[in-house]
Amino acid sequence: MTGIGAVTPHGSDAPLFFEALLRGESAIRLYQGEAAPQPLAIPAGYCADFDAAASLGRSRANGMDRFSQLGATAAQLAWQDAGLDRDDSLQRHDVGVFWGTGGGGFGTTERGYQDLFLRDKTRISPLSVMFSMSNAAATHIAIGLGLGGANFTYSVACASSAIAIGEAFRRVRSGEAAVMLAGGSEAPLAYGVIRAWESLKILAPGDEASAPFACRPFDAERRGLVLSEGAGAIVLEDWDRAVARGATIYAELAGYGTRCDHVHLSRPEAAGQVRALEAALADAGLRPDEIDYVNAHGTATREGDATEIAALAQVFGDHTSRLAISATKSMHGHALGAAGVIEAIVTILAVAQQAIPPTAHLAAPAPECIGLRHVGRGERNVPVRAALSNSFAFGGSNAVLVCRKAVLF
User: Is the full-model pTM beyond 0.90?
Assistant: First the structure.
């Protein structure tokens, strides 16, 4: 992994984002929807400082939904971070883009409904289909960077971008591509989307004072998840090629496993997660005791957190009590289809910098969430040989990525 780019509620600088997480800083704030037909205020992770026109140019930004703007910016940052904008030897028509999103252009879709049902218009923008389609972000990325390889979009709820990364990894490992750009983006803070999540009774409440602390994974007093927007991108590159050109190698993507619960649309099942975890470890050729850190899916829901802990305990056995775990959604919120890549970037930097961010606001783990070594305060200069990034989605789709410390011989 030779390039990373992120646009999160903490800003658009991945290293500074990671430093903020190590300090336990929450970017979650009280969010009030613009032009909402009814009053709306929830804790949310909003990219308040993101300026699409400044990042992409006004003309280009105006041709995109917000989820594409976020994604194109993250991809551009990752590409530049990898130094590929200066690599004249790269055959860009062979580089693919694998992207993830849970819902695509939520904002564009909602504006169309507003025009039809609130403003009594008989037609909406002719660009609505192109703006809202789920593969719009991946298409804009390919156009902007001139990438002519396979261009796929994965829409697998909260596992979307983790699966995009894993499938891109397989392309590079098989030799089908020397370089792939993978990630995901989501902009779900539309009025209708928020109201839909509210109906599920799993959003954490909060006011202006309490909103930064609203997301409390694994805590006995946790009250639900916090929605957020954002994007992340990772450049995956053949090892020999990266070494030959002197690229910075953050970490090695060593394994990927995915399995389906096949039980329920929304209720997680430990058995499916266990199979995904075991598949990822087997793919990486690593034993459970060689994993030092898990960046958990950790959404702060009652059932989700407990199920994930149970699955980890089953897979790691005697090593469970020594396994460090944290859920950084406590600070940046749940970016749905982009959550996997944002947390994969956190995991990559944990391995690269030998540092582990905390689960913020964790006062006392719930009885059903004990057993692992919860990181409640950022840890620096600690050994992280290999780490997992978990993404467990509605629909029972589970994806696990294994990152290993890069060792140059």
Answer: yes
